[in-house]
Amino acid sequence: MQHKPKRSRAVALPNNQFRIRATEYLDFLAAWLKKPRQTASVVPSSRHLARLMVAHIDPADGRVLELGGGTGVFTRAILQTGLPPEKLEVVEINPAFARGLRRHFPAISILETPAQIVSTATAGAPGDYQTVVSGLPLLAMDRHVHMDILSEAFRILAPGGSFIQFTYSMRPPVSREVLDALDLSVERCGQTVRNFPPATVFRFFRRVH
């Protein structure tokens, strides 16, 4: 008796999800080719990294600000926590990415404002924000920019609020000198190899005296 070889079954994404993923990859590659230092990677972040980035968000708490929305991978994960769209604002200075975010997330406010002065454009007041989720390529920026971005983030964050940042390094992307100057602490939240490149997530928060 002959045994027929079993056919392996491929797991396919639903058509709409496949189109979204394909569009995200093409948009990200185009942005990287145009401004590699600003985009930092040739592919968007994975959903595994996105889950780590949004783990501290409480949908019943205050507002959330996302820095560097890109193609919307983190934006989608933030909304999946149950946070109402009106409590989320996304900063994206790349015009092509900003247009895509407005198309995919029409209920969310998209701000084309530099992260260093974002408080001039946010709907919420200082202290209204529970979390800042950052997809910015901090490793490609100098410490003066780090100082400006973190200062602005903690200007709007509530007491106990968190600045969440991923990096492709095992070490925090912000120097001890900057952290000391701003009176901040940092802790490692997790790491995923299911991202290209593998990424580590850090949480920055005010020191308790």
Name the descriptors.
209 residues, alpha/beta, seven-stranded mixed sheet, 22% strand, globular, disordered N terminus
Structural topology:
Elements: H1 15-34, H2 36-39, H3 47-53, E1 63-67, H4 73-80, E2 88-91, H5 95-104, E3 109-111, E4 129-134, H6 143-156, E5 157-167, H7 176-182, E6 184-192, E7 199-206
Parallel strand pairs: 1-2, 1-4, 2-3, 4-5
Antiparallel strand pairs: 5-7, 6-7
Characterise this structure.
The structure is a single chain. This protein starts with 14 loop residues before the first helix and ends with a strand. Strand 4 (129-134), helix 6 (143-156) and strand 5 (157-167) form a beta-alpha-beta unit. The longest helix is centred in the first third of the chain and has 20 residues, at 15-34. Helix 3 (47-53) packs across helix 4 and helix 6 runs parallel beside helix 7. It is α/β, with parallel strands linked by helices and 209 residues long. It contains 7 helices and 7 strands; from the N terminus they run H-H-H-E-H-E-H-E-E-H-E-H-E-E.
The largest sheet, given as strand count, sense and whether it forms a barrel, is: 7 strands, mixed
Distance between the termini: 78 Å
Give the low-confidence spans. 1-13
Structural class: alpha/beta
Question: What's the average pLDDT?
Answer: 86
Strand order of the largest sheet: 3-2-1-4-5-7-6
Strand content bin: 15-25%
Helix count from the secondary structure assignment:
7
Tell me the number of strands: 7
Q: In percent, how helical is the residue content?
A: 25-40%
Quaternary assembly: single chain
From the spread of the alpha carbons, the general shape counts as: globular
